[in-house]
From TrEMBL:
Higher taxonomy: Bacteria, Bacillati, Actinomycetota, Actinomycetes, Micrococcales
Protein name as catalogued: NTP pyrophosphohydrolase MazG-like domain-containing protein
Pfam family for this entry, one: MazG
Domain NTP pyrophosphohydrolase MazG-like: residue ranges: 29-103
């Protein structure tokens, strides 16, 4: 086994011992661990955005600990127990299926082709799904959720009116520079300004966006209805 494999096995063994001997760890459930998972994920994002390599390595370890912790809890479950080996096996099998250009006979010379093969494999795996919205995690932050749902809407022709609105706004911006943000930095300033407006008027910006996203979801389901 490689050194990396040895260290991963050691981390899993440490997790098992902690769960066996630590009374606090023994009280943890998947539900109770969720806040820690969210926090560690956010800290990893911060490390990536700051470009701090040492912190990135540490936060990746903390996130890995959460994966090991959930797997250890699952291994003691009364219903359908599974452990980290099962998680790793399932991951390997899925990644092999979704990379037929690496492990199969397909070829992919462009990133776009890779995504086509990935989505085709995923669609086959999730053939029981009846809506493009199936599998969209609503625990995502509102902005990330909005981007995800708008992307799903494009697959069924929903959101075209939004695209038309953007095109119209861009046409206005061509004559009146500054109307629309022209970079991610300017977009951030614009979004922050909108949040400031919401705060000043006593509105909940998160709830407002989630409400708007639900309207798009309703439109998607209506478009999918036979």
């Amino acid at each position: 086994m490689s050194e990396a494999g040895d260290e991963l096995k050691k981390a899993a063994d440490v997790m098992r011992q902690v769960h066996e001997r630590c009374v606090w760890s023994q009280t943890m459930t998947h539900e109770r661990l969720v806040p820690y998972l969210v926090e560690e994920s956010a800290e990893l994002v911060d490390a990536v955005e700051r470009g701090d390599r040492a912190e990135l390595r540490e936060e990746l370890g903390d996130l890995l600990w959460q994966v090991l912790f959930h797997a250890e809890v699952a291994s003691h479950g009364d219903v359908d127990p599974f452990g980290i080996d099962d998680v790793a096996r399932g991951l390997s099998e899925k990644m092999i299926r979704r990379h037929p250009h690496v492990f199969g006979d397909e070829t992919a010379e462009t990133p776009e082709r890779v995504l086509e093969l990935w989505n085709a494999a995923k669609a086959q795996e999730k053939s029981a799904r009846s809506s493009v919205l199936d599998g969209v995690p609503h625990a995502m932050p509102a902005l990330a959720l909005a981007q995800k749902v708008l992307g799903k809407g494009e697959q069924v022709g929903v959101g075209l009116e939004l695209a038309e609105s953007v095109a119209a706004a861009e046409a206005i911006a061509a004559d009146e520079p500054g109307v629309l943000p022209e970079s991610e930095e300017e977009l951030g300033d614009t979004l922050l300004g909108l949040v400031a407006v919401a705060r000043a008027r006593g509105w909940d910006a998160e709830r407002a966006l989630r409400t708007a996203v639900r309207d798009v979801e309703d439109a998607i389901r209506e478009a999918e209805a036979p």
